[in-house]
Structure formats: C-alpha cells, structure tokens
C-alpha cells in the first residue's frame, strides 16, 4: 500500500492556479540567472579592462615619473623580448618584464632592437624604454683613443687592437690617403690621423674610422688657420704639419711649443740642419731615452736631420691641436737652440748663441749624471 503525503485532492481551479504560479516562478529564476551571468561577465570584463588601464596586469612606470640615473645594460645575442624585459626590470629601467614585452609588441620597429651594451635611464615607461633602445645614441659603443705623438705605424697598431679589426685593412687604406679624405697636400697619412677619442658602432668599418680621424685633423687645421699660416710663413701646409710633428716630439711643456716651433723656422731660414733627436728616433723606431747615440745619428736617411738639411720628408708623428697651433703661429724670438735641462720637470732653456747653448747642455749633462739611476738620459 502506498502512502501519498500530498494531502487530499484539491479542486480543479486551484490546481490550475498553483501550476501557473510554478511556471511563473521558473521563468523568474531563469531571468535572474541570466541577469546574474551578465553582471558577472560585465564585472569580470570591466575588471580586466581596468587592470589593463591601471597597469595591474603589467606594472609600468607612469609617463609623469621622473627618469632616474642612467645604468649600463647588456643585452646578450639572441635574447628574446621576455629576456630583454627581465634584464631591464632587474636594472630598474622598466617596472616589469611584462610591460616591456607588451610595449615592444606594440612597436613595429622593436624588431630592430640589437644585442650589445646600452646606457639607459632608470624608471622609464616601457614604451619609452623601447624607443630608447632603438636610439643609436644610447648604445654604449666601443672607443678608440689615440694619444698625441704616435707614429703612423704605432697608430695603426693601436687602432687595430682597440677596434678588433685586422691591421692590414688599415694599412691598405693608408697606402692611398685620398681614399680616406686626406687633403691634397698629404702624401701620406703620417701626421694626419688626429689624436682623439672616437666612438665606434657595431658595424663601423676600417675606412670609416680613418675617415673620421682625417676629418678631425682637417677640422683642427681649419681652426688654427694652418693653410693661411703656411702661406704667411712661406712654407707649404705639409711642411707646417711636419714642423708641428717635431714640436710634438720635442716640446716638454705647453708654453714651450711656440718657442720650439720658432727655433725650427729660424734654423730653416738660416740653412742650418735641425739636428733634432726626435727625427732620428723616428728613423730607428726607438722609444725611451730622449737622447740618441753617435751610431744612431750616423745613419744615412732623409729623416736624419743631423746629416740632412731641412725638414724630414713627412711628419714624424701625429701632432695634437696645440702643436698645430704652435707650428702655425710660432713665438717671436731669435733662438736657434734649446735643451731640456731637467727631464722630470720639463724645464727647457733656449739660446741664441752656440756658446750659451753649450752652457745649457752642460747643465743637462750634470742633471743626467746626478739622476743616472732613473734611466732617462
């Protein structure tokens, strides 16, 4: 026997009314569920939108943030955007790796970001960091520094070493000075690769390096008015550069440069041999002591100004701007001789007569005797 717990049967009209109420309740439930889903979708979507706008998904520095001090950043070869972003985030260039990746993907030029060394400001919005990495001026390029007074051979050695390019490339270019823009009066690059510091890019060629150095020479020569001065001095521009190279090698202090230049011109005007040890040292390729030996001075070469009158055939080194200035605008004076009497202080004495000069030479020799252990003489 079955037990029904619904109670006694109800009249027909009542049952119909209750069925209608149940159908209405179900429709209301469905509508409520749909509304709930719509609201949830809106909330979730709005939350994601807000997260994107507010940077919650990818923390990023605001464009109103003041950039911080620059830091060195190294991007290894083959690094992915994600790896780049992490490196930048670790250096505090960007606030997060994700922000950088997003900004890079939004920038059509980002594929041009190269590996290598950069110097970038910290606290940058990711989009600005991408732009900064695309700007060549933010690349921490290699440098070449040449000091004054190096011969061409030593310059090429140094340039090749610092640039990591084959020395032969530079040597081949040096055979044709015009190919790297040397002035018409330069028959060699000796003396025309200007001593300075040069920035290199990843793809800088040997020719571009030498062109830049010659351009710097031409700029310096123009600034001192070298060609006009040569005319006034009754010499060619090449001869003035040769004088400047001897000044570079012989002068011990800045104040002495114009005076050494005047001694050279005075001796040339009188037909006297220059008798400069620096020209003999160029011939022998020796560095170190400032003096030369009898054997060295006996070598027959146009660069030996003890044996041959006039200037050496070419400059003997690369003079700096101060020596170019001195050669173009020598001091006024009748000096014919000079000698450095103290190799530590650079004190140099100038003379108009041989007798006076010999007194100064004796003073120099006395200094050398007293300082023999220093090995400078």
Features:
single chain, 377 residues, mainly alpha, Dna Ligase, domain 1, two-stranded antiparallel sheet, two-stranded antiparallel ribbon, 6 strands, 48% helix, disordered N terminus
Beta-strand percentage? Answer: 5-15%
* C-alpha Rg (nearest Å): 40 Å
Amino- and carboxy-terminal Cα gap: 135 Å
* Structural category: mainly alpha
The major sheet is characterized as: 2 strands, antiparallel
Overall number of strands: 6
pLDDT averaged over residues: 87
Report the total helices: 14
Report the order of strands and helices: HEHHEHEHHEHHHHHHHEEH
Blueprint (SSEs and pairs):
Layout: H1 12-54, E1 68-75, H2 81-90, H3 97-106, E2 116-122, H4 126-134, E3 142-145, H5 152-163, H6 167-174, E4 197-200, H7 206-223, H8 226-233, H9 237-250, H10 257-269, H11 277-284, H12 294-297, H13 321-328, E5 337-342, E6 347-351, H14 354-370
Question: In words, what does this structure look like?
Answer:
The protein has helices spanning 12-54, 81-90, 97-106, 126-134, 152-163, 167-174, 206-223, 226-233, 237-250, 257-269, 277-284, 294-297, 321-328, 354-370; strands at 68-75, 116-122, 142-145, 197-200, 337-342, 347-351. With 377 residues, it is mostly helical. The strands form three sheets. It has a two-stranded antiparallel ribbon with strand order 1-2. A two-stranded antiparallel sheet has the order 3-4. The protein has a two-stranded antiparallel ribbon with strand order 5-6. Strand 5 and strand 6 form a beta hairpin. Helix 9 (237-250) packs across helix 13 (321-328). The model is unreliable at 1-10 and 39-55 (pLDDT under 50).
